Amino acid sequence: MLNIGGSVLGGCLFVLICTKFITFNKNKKTGFEASYIDETGTGFNFPVSLSKFLPEMVAPPYSNQSLSELEAQLIGFLNSYRNWPYDISGESKKSLYDHAIEQWKAMRSLPNAGPLHYAAALAQDLSLAYAFQEKRKKYPLSQFWKRDDVRFSRRCVEHGGLSATILATMPAFKTLGDDIKTNQKYRRAILTAIRYRDNPTSIPVNCDPLGKDIYESLHKAYQKSLEKADSTGFNPAENHIKTFNHEIYSFFQGVLKELDINPANVTKDSDGVYLGGGVLMVSLCHMVRRYAKLLTPTSRGNFNLWDIPSEEHVSWPHFIQAFRDIGALRETWDDIEPGKSGTFDLKANNIHFKHAIFLNIEREKFPELRQTLDTYPTWQGLIEMQKNEESLLQEVQTKAKNVDKMIQTVYSRPTVAN
User: Fold this and answer.
1) pTM higher than 0.85, yes or no?
2) What number of H helices and E strands is found in the chain?
3) Contact (CB, 8 A) for 141 and 19
4) CA–CA separation, 85 vs 67, rounded Å?
5) Is the dihedral of CA 5, 7, 8, 10 positive or negative?
6) Which of 107-111, 351-355, 393-397 bottoms out in mean pLDDT, i.e. has the lowest?
7) How distant, in Å, are the alpha carbons of 82, 101, 124, 161 from that of 79?
8) Cα distance between residue 176 and residue 187, in whole Å
9) Separation CA 279–CA 284 (nearest Å)
10) Which residues pair with 134 in a beta bridge?
11) Which end of the chain is more exposed for a tag (fewer CB within 10 A), N or C?
């Protein structure tokens, strides 16, 4: 009897110990709730990981990659979010930790990126630690073999401001740089990049170039992380093209007003030349660069506009079509059609514009823009067309066909009898 009682008691103790100390890694509870109050007095409650203060224990797997102190603390913080979802809509099963490390690795592969860029890649989605709320249903001791039923709901909309606020709690963030001035510059740059990652039009005009560079790099790294070996190439969807065209139209007049097209001072850095009468010749490369800074991050990603080469780009046909839809594209120049890329190879007073297009700004469609353009002095120079052997042959063939059509028209007219 004593043996049976001892066995029962021992079994109960074993079950109790198992349910008390054994946790299922998939549904492990994350951190604890803490509160942080920012400089405006706004309080943020979010799960905090104790491990963020013990980076030496958490970060060793990456210690061979020369981690900065801030990177180590961020990885330590994110370590407790290995089971915290990055997306609760069902589109992605990645955890917040996995996504952050993926972006961090992509950022490390970019040229000219440094420790601040790496830290920004880790910190850009920290708002998800607060935006998602865990709801856990526990089972009684009698059902000890069952895992907790864990569900996540959206507590609020995640945004860059919240990510920046959480980043500011990291001890190493407050000690960036070697002096106060550098510290303020670095902190402001990384906070600005994260705060306005999804809203670039709100980036302050006086933003430090470092902040803009980090912002650009965040999106370049994300684009790089999406690249696949079996990619079918550049093929934007119809809804993406529609959104893109809308953005091109929205910024059209603003972009043209900022172009350096003064005919009185044409240099190698000019964007083009205003020829008068509403017609301007402009470098498509320069136009695309200016547009890229204004387009939404989604459109820039869909049209590969985070890295913009000086030569032909896959987005050019879509830009040209958008200008055509606006009714501003001039299809030919002196009856000469553009090359295969849809652009002309021109010289304006010996200044070379290799990939240029002509735009015609009608007074009826764009009265304010046309008024601004007509304030420029009159163009007194020459526009020379540069032709290679292939384009010359194509032009000769085109003109020969036009002559043949004209001859056929003349001889096909009915003759009048005397």
Assistant:
1) no
2) 15, 10
3) yes
4) 25
5) positive
6) 393-397
7) 6, 10, 15, 22
8) 7
9) 15
10) 152
11) C
Beta bridge partner(s), residue 274: 280
Helices (H), 196-227: 209-226
Task: Measure CA of the first residue to CA of the last residue in the chain; give whole Å.
Answer: 140
Provide the percentage of residues in the chain whose pLDDT is more than 90.
23
DSSP 350: T
Is the model's pLDDT at 120 over the cut of 50?
A: yes
Whether 261 and 273 have beta carbons less than 8 Å apart is answered as: yes
Cα distances (angstroms) measured from residue 74 to each of 168, 169, 187: 11, 10, 15
Given a cut of 90, whether residue 264 has pLDDT beyond it is no
The pairing of strands 43-48 and 272-276 is: unpaired
What would the two tokens of residue 161 be? 């401001």
Beta carbons of 297 and 198 less than 8 angstroms apart: yes
How many beta carbons lie within 10 A of that of residue 105, not counting itself?
A: 16
CA distance 315 to 284: 11
In whole angstroms, how far apart are CA 392 and each of 281, 300, 346, 388, 395?
Answer: 21, 35, 14, 6, 5
Using CA atoms, how far apart are residues 241 and 255, in angstroms rounded to an integer?
A: 19
Q: What whole-number distance in Å separates Cα of residue 285 and Cα of residue 199?
A: 24
DSSP H or E stretch at residue 18: helix 2-21
Whole-number Å distance between alpha carbons of 160 and 5 = 61
Whose structure tokens read 């797997």?
Answer: 61
Instruction: Give the separation between CA 201 and CA 370, rounded to whole angstroms.
Output: 25
Residue 52 predicted with pLDDT over 50: no
**3 state SS of 384:** strand
The DSSP output letter for 365 is T
- Which residues pair with residue 151 across a beta bridge? 135
